Amino acid sequence: MSKSLQAIRGMNDILPEQTPLWRYFEGTVARLLDNYGYKQIRMPIVEFTELFKRSIGEVTDIVEKEMYTFEDRNGDSLTLRPEGTAACVRAVLEHGLTGGGQPQKLWYIGPMFRHERPQKGRYRQFHQIGLEVFNLDGPDIDAELIVLTWRLWGQLGIRDAVKLELNSLGTSESRGRYRVALVEYLSAHLDKLDEDSQRRLKTNPLRVLDTKNADTQAVLVNAPKMADYLDDESRTHFEGLKARLDAAGIPYVINPKLVRGLDYYSKTVFEWVTDKLGAQGTVCAGGRYDGLVEQMGGKPTTGVGFAMGIERLILLLETLGQVPEEIYRQVDVYLCAFGEAAELAALALSEKVRDQLPNLRLQINAGAGSFKSQFKKADKSGALYALILGEDELAQQVIGFKPLRGQGEQQNIAFDALAAHLATCVVQG
């Protein structure tokens, strides 16, 4: 017997009973970003591999170990995007969106792909919402990104479960000076470093700061601190960011070991973390990347952005019990019709009601069935009310109106009064 078909490991179906929560989360974010003046951009999920090597860095874990890369029929090396910033920068450059120093405030949503070990909250196909801002170089826009996420956490009811961590990586020059000092210090304690950190010491030494190994963390206690190597410009920028967060009343902690996993970051880096999801604690992260556009062939252009993991934030909402029950009600009114004449009239009547109440979620029964079976489907749909149309009602040009989720007797409503009645009970009720 052939093997049954199933999804690829780490790539999951999002089933109908799950999508209401996804739509609630995505809709909440989209409305917030509209209110802050961000415009949506949509990029392909496949890019030339060289894009990610040039932007993320060839010696990062993502490029070395995690990318889904393949050759197409033309022999070109293509990669399923592992993150969104590089693709967004490519699109901005290709279409000249930042020409003349024009600021751009963009956001995107979609799947990303990394070949990691699947675990709860960490998948090989995962979904992100990302924001990217170009040609604004002050700490005010860094602060705006953090402030709007703080507002989002409030709207979702999860503020008490997340913590903001901040750091500054300085400019490439100051980071280079710090790298020399860090390598010198760690080389003197090489025998105490774990194997992975020894490898990173030669390729990407700042990532050693991100280690989870307890022995290496102990060595790092007395390691040089990035803050001592910051240039004046970066220090002033960082102080400006902190002042704005203080003014907005947003709590934060400085984490000198926060470096992020991508080579293109400079100055501000930040993470929103939680202790409610076990090992997968980061739910939103980003920072400034002022040199990336130039590195990818464009003119000097400042940039800052972040990405939030949809799976992890949805898991956090579920863990904290912050999922509104009403999002799972997909039907307001269920129309039951009995007999062919009633079915034809029900179709015409339902479409007239939709014309008058475009936001009404009205489901008309399909597949005929007895009174009992149709009412069973009406109840299972989660509708608040059932409409009943049979031969008697049709003859009188009325329709039965029955509450399904509370007190109230069935009553008959004239066809021409139905929309007004529903507006009172459902749309406004």
Note the main attributes of this structure:
429 residues, eight-stranded mixed beta sheet, alpha+beta, 15 helices, 20% strand, elongated
Describe the structure.
- The protein has helices at 19-35, 49-56, 61-66, 85-94, 139-156, 172-187, 195-203, 214-220, 232-248, 292-295, 310-320, 340-356, 371-380, 391-396, 418-427; strands spanning 39-40, 46-48, 68-71, 77-80, 104-113, 125-134, 163-168, 253-254, 266-273, 282-288, 303-309, 333-337, 362-364, 385-389, 398-403, 411-414.
- The strands form three sheets. The protein has an eight-stranded mixed β-sheet. It has a five-stranded mixed β-sheet with strand order 13-12-14-15-16, sandwiched between helices. It has a three-stranded antiparallel β-sheet with strand order 2-4-3.
- The radius of gyration is 28 Å and the shape is elongated.
- Helix 1 packs antiparallel against helix 5 and helix 5 runs parallel beside helix 9 (232-248).
- 34% of the residues are buried.
- It contains 15 helices and 16 strands.
- By secondary structure, the protein is of the alpha+beta class.
- Helix content is 39%, strand content 20%.
- The mean pLDDT is 92.
- Helix 12 links the parallel strand 12 and strand 13 (362-364).
- The protein starts with 18 loop residues before the first helix and ends with a helix.
